[in-house]
Write a structure and sequence with these properties.
Layout: H1 2-6, H2 11-18, H3 22-32, H4 36-43, H5 49-55, H6 60-71, H7 80-87, E1 109-111, E2 118-120, H8 123-143, E3 149-151, E4 163-165, E5 173-178, E6 184-192, H9 193-198
Parallel strand pairs: 3-5
Antiparallel strand pairs: 1-2, 4-6, 5-6
Length: 199
Protein backbone atom coordinates (compact mmCIF):
# COMPACT_ATOMS: atom_id res chain seq x y z
CA UNK A 1 0.00 0.00 0.00
CA UNK A 2 2.83 2.38 0.91
CA UNK A 3 4.57 1.67 -2.39
CA UNK A 4 1.33 2.34 -4.31
CA UNK A 5 0.86 5.66 -2.50
CA UNK A 6 4.44 6.64 -3.40
CA UNK A 7 3.59 5.81 -7.02
CA UNK A 8 0.73 8.31 -6.86
CA UNK A 9 -2.27 6.05 -6.20
CA UNK A 10 -5.01 7.40 -3.91
CA UNK A 11 -6.45 5.48 -0.98
CA UNK A 12 -9.71 5.21 -2.96
CA UNK A 13 -7.84 3.58 -5.89
CA UNK A 14 -6.08 1.15 -3.58
CA UNK A 15 -9.34 0.26 -1.81
CA UNK A 16 -11.04 -0.44 -5.16
CA UNK A 17 -8.08 -2.56 -6.38
CA UNK A 18 -8.02 -4.75 -3.26
CA UNK A 19 -11.77 -4.83 -2.58
CA UNK A 20 -11.54 -3.10 0.80
CA UNK A 21 -12.74 0.18 2.25
CA UNK A 22 -10.75 3.43 2.30
CA UNK A 23 -10.75 3.28 6.09
CA UNK A 24 -9.11 -0.18 6.03
CA UNK A 25 -6.45 1.13 3.63
CA UNK A 26 -5.80 4.16 5.88
CA UNK A 27 -5.41 1.87 8.89
CA UNK A 28 -2.89 -0.35 7.11
CA UNK A 29 -0.97 2.73 5.95
CA UNK A 30 -1.05 4.16 9.49
CA UNK A 31 0.43 0.99 10.93
CA UNK A 32 2.98 0.89 8.11
CA UNK A 33 4.23 4.37 9.06
CA UNK A 34 5.00 3.32 12.64
CA UNK A 35 8.60 2.54 13.50
CA UNK A 36 9.38 -1.20 13.13
CA UNK A 37 10.09 -1.62 16.88
CA UNK A 38 6.61 -0.27 17.71
CA UNK A 39 4.98 -2.63 15.19
CA UNK A 40 7.00 -5.50 16.65
CA UNK A 41 5.91 -4.63 20.22
CA UNK A 42 2.29 -4.60 19.02
CA UNK A 43 2.71 -7.97 17.26
CA UNK A 44 4.13 -9.44 20.49
CA UNK A 45 1.15 -7.94 22.39
CA UNK A 46 3.46 -5.85 24.58
CA UNK A 47 1.32 -2.81 23.78
CA UNK A 48 -2.42 -2.60 23.09
CA UNK A 49 -4.37 -1.34 20.08
CA UNK A 50 -5.31 1.94 21.80
CA UNK A 51 -1.64 2.75 22.39
CA UNK A 52 -0.74 1.91 18.78
CA UNK A 53 -3.58 4.09 17.52
CA UNK A 54 -2.32 7.08 19.53
CA UNK A 55 1.25 6.44 18.37
CA UNK A 56 0.07 6.88 14.77
CA UNK A 57 -0.35 10.59 15.67
CA UNK A 58 3.32 10.85 16.65
CA UNK A 59 6.10 12.10 14.42
CA UNK A 60 9.10 9.80 13.95
CA UNK A 61 11.02 11.84 16.56
CA UNK A 62 8.17 11.48 19.08
CA UNK A 63 7.91 7.73 18.34
CA UNK A 64 11.66 7.41 19.05
CA UNK A 65 11.26 9.36 22.29
CA UNK A 66 8.41 7.06 23.35
CA UNK A 67 10.41 3.93 22.38
CA UNK A 68 13.32 5.11 24.56
CA UNK A 69 10.93 5.35 27.53
CA UNK A 70 9.37 1.98 26.66
CA UNK A 71 12.78 0.24 26.43
CA UNK A 72 14.02 1.64 29.75
CA UNK A 73 12.64 -0.35 32.75
CA UNK A 74 13.41 2.62 35.04
CA UNK A 75 11.15 4.92 32.98
CA UNK A 76 7.41 5.01 32.43
CA UNK A 77 6.15 5.02 28.83
CA UNK A 78 2.61 6.41 28.71
CA UNK A 79 -0.10 4.17 27.22
CA UNK A 80 -3.66 4.70 26.01
CA UNK A 81 -5.26 7.98 27.02
CA UNK A 82 -2.16 9.13 28.93
CA UNK A 83 -0.18 8.69 25.74
CA UNK A 84 -2.51 11.05 23.87
CA UNK A 85 -2.02 13.70 26.58
CA UNK A 86 1.75 13.14 26.49
CA UNK A 87 1.79 13.60 22.70
CA UNK A 88 -0.35 16.74 22.81
CA UNK A 89 1.39 18.44 25.73
CA UNK A 90 -1.16 17.60 28.41
CA UNK A 91 -4.30 19.03 26.83
CA UNK A 92 -6.10 17.62 23.84
CA UNK A 93 -8.86 19.58 22.13
CA UNK A 94 -10.68 17.88 19.29
CA UNK A 95 -11.27 19.73 16.03
CA UNK A 96 -14.93 18.66 16.37
CA UNK A 97 -15.56 21.33 19.04
CA UNK A 98 -14.38 24.32 16.97
CA UNK A 99 -16.98 27.03 16.36
CA UNK A 100 -14.70 28.47 13.68
CA UNK A 101 -13.83 26.96 10.30
CA UNK A 102 -10.94 24.56 10.98
CA UNK A 103 -9.24 25.63 7.74
CA UNK A 104 -8.95 29.16 9.24
CA UNK A 105 -7.03 27.86 12.27
CA UNK A 106 -3.56 28.40 10.76
CA UNK A 107 -1.76 26.12 13.23
CA UNK A 108 -0.81 22.47 13.10
CA UNK A 109 -3.52 19.84 13.44
CA UNK A 110 -2.47 16.43 14.71
CA UNK A 111 -4.53 13.45 13.70
CA UNK A 112 -4.19 9.75 14.13
CA UNK A 113 -3.40 8.21 10.81
CA UNK A 114 -6.60 6.20 10.96
CA UNK A 115 -8.16 9.54 10.02
CA UNK A 116 -10.88 9.35 12.66
CA UNK A 117 -9.72 11.88 15.29
CA UNK A 118 -7.81 15.13 14.98
CA UNK A 119 -6.63 17.63 17.57
CA UNK A 120 -5.30 21.18 17.72
CA UNK A 121 -1.54 21.18 18.38
CA UNK A 122 -1.41 24.88 19.40
CA UNK A 123 -3.88 25.21 22.29
CA UNK A 124 -3.33 28.97 22.70
CA UNK A 125 -4.14 29.57 19.04
CA UNK A 126 -7.22 27.34 19.36
CA UNK A 127 -8.51 29.40 22.32
CA UNK A 128 -7.82 32.66 20.49
CA UNK A 129 -9.88 31.49 17.49
CA UNK A 130 -12.59 29.89 19.66
CA UNK A 131 -12.98 33.04 21.79
CA UNK A 132 -13.27 35.18 18.65
CA UNK A 133 -16.01 32.86 17.37
CA UNK A 134 -17.83 32.94 20.74
CA UNK A 135 -17.67 36.78 20.77
CA UNK A 136 -19.13 36.87 17.23
CA UNK A 137 -21.98 34.49 18.19
CA UNK A 138 -22.63 36.53 21.36
CA UNK A 139 -22.84 39.75 19.30
CA UNK A 140 -25.23 38.03 16.86
CA UNK A 141 -27.56 37.07 19.74
CA UNK A 142 -27.63 40.69 20.98
CA UNK A 143 -28.22 41.94 17.44
CA UNK A 144 -31.11 39.48 17.12
CA UNK A 145 -32.82 41.17 20.09
CA UNK A 146 -31.85 39.01 23.06
CA UNK A 147 -31.66 41.15 26.22
CA UNK A 148 -28.37 39.62 27.30
CA UNK A 149 -25.93 36.90 26.28
CA UNK A 150 -24.07 35.85 29.41
CA UNK A 151 -20.73 34.09 28.98
CA UNK A 152 -19.92 31.94 32.02
CA UNK A 153 -16.34 31.31 33.12
CA UNK A 154 -14.62 28.46 31.30
CA UNK A 155 -15.50 25.21 33.10
CA UNK A 156 -18.60 26.64 34.86
CA UNK A 157 -21.80 24.60 34.52
CA UNK A 158 -25.29 25.77 33.60
CA UNK A 159 -27.83 24.17 35.93
CA UNK A 160 -31.32 24.23 34.43
CA UNK A 161 -32.95 23.62 37.81
CA UNK A 162 -31.59 26.98 39.03
CA UNK A 163 -33.22 28.76 36.07
CA UNK A 164 -36.64 29.21 34.53
CA UNK A 165 -37.33 28.92 30.81
CA UNK A 166 -38.25 32.43 29.62
CA UNK A 167 -38.88 33.61 26.07
CA UNK A 168 -36.90 36.35 24.36
CA UNK A 169 -40.01 38.61 24.43
CA UNK A 170 -40.25 38.26 28.21
CA UNK A 171 -36.59 39.14 28.76
CA UNK A 172 -34.99 35.69 28.60
CA UNK A 173 -31.23 35.59 28.29
CA UNK A 174 -28.80 33.40 26.43
CA UNK A 175 -26.31 31.64 28.71
CA UNK A 176 -23.08 30.50 27.05
CA UNK A 177 -21.01 27.73 28.63
CA UNK A 178 -17.52 26.68 27.59
CA UNK A 179 -15.89 23.48 28.85
CA UNK A 180 -12.16 23.02 29.52
CA UNK A 181 -12.12 20.80 26.41
CA UNK A 182 -13.37 23.68 24.25
CA UNK A 183 -17.00 22.57 23.84
CA UNK A 184 -19.44 25.49 23.67
CA UNK A 185 -23.17 25.37 24.42
CA UNK A 186 -25.72 28.14 23.92
CA UNK A 187 -28.69 27.91 26.32
CA UNK A 188 -31.37 30.15 24.83
CA UNK A 189 -34.21 31.71 26.82
CA UNK A 190 -33.43 31.44 30.53
CA UNK A 191 -33.55 33.58 33.65
CA UNK A 192 -32.41 32.67 37.14
CA UNK A 193 -35.37 31.85 39.41
CA UNK A 194 -34.75 35.13 41.26
CA UNK A 195 -34.77 37.14 38.01
CA UNK A 196 -37.89 35.30 36.81
CA UNK A 197 -39.75 36.15 40.05
CA UNK A 198 -38.72 39.80 39.73
CA UNK A 199 -39.88 39.87 36.11
Amino acid sequence: FTRLVKEGRTTADIAATFGSTELQVKRVLALGRLLPKIREAYRKEEIDADTVRHLTMASNAKQKEWLALFADPAQYAPHGRQLKQWLLGGQSISTKVALFAVEDYGGQIVSDLFGEDSYFADIDLFWQKQNEAIAARRAAYLEAGWREAVLLETGAYFYEWEHEKTSKKKGGKVVITVSQRGEVEFHEGWLTRKEARRA
